[in-house]
Amino acid sequence: MATKDGANNQSELDRVMEDIRRELVLRVAKADRDEHRDVYDALQHE
């Protein structure tokens, strides 16, 4: 239940924002790996 000053809502908002940030980071990292797959493959086979 939310407190009078809304502290509980902020905490929930922080959790949601952290989930969104994490998802964005994962998507950007995946896109980067896909775009530069040849570089990653060359480094792996060195």
Largest sheet: none
- What sequence of helices (H) and strands (E) makes up the elements? HH
Radius of gyration: 19 Å
**End-to-end CA span:** 56 Å
What's the number of helices? 2
Strand content: under 5%
| Low-pLDDT residue spans | none
Helix-residue proportion: over 70%
Question: What's the overall geometry?
Answer: rod-shaped
Content-based structural category: mainly alpha
Could you tell me the number of beta strands?
Answer: 0
Overall pLDDT metric: 85
Question: Can you walk me through this structure?
Answer:
The chain is built from two helices and no strands. The chain has 46 residues and is an all-alpha fold.
Give a quick precis of the structure.
The protein is 80% helix and 0% strand. The chain is mainly alpha-helical and 46 residues long.
Topology:
Layout (H helix, E strand, L loop, with lengths): L6 H29 L1 H8 L2
Please supply descriptive tags for the structure shown above.
2 helices; mainly alpha; 80% helix; 46 residues
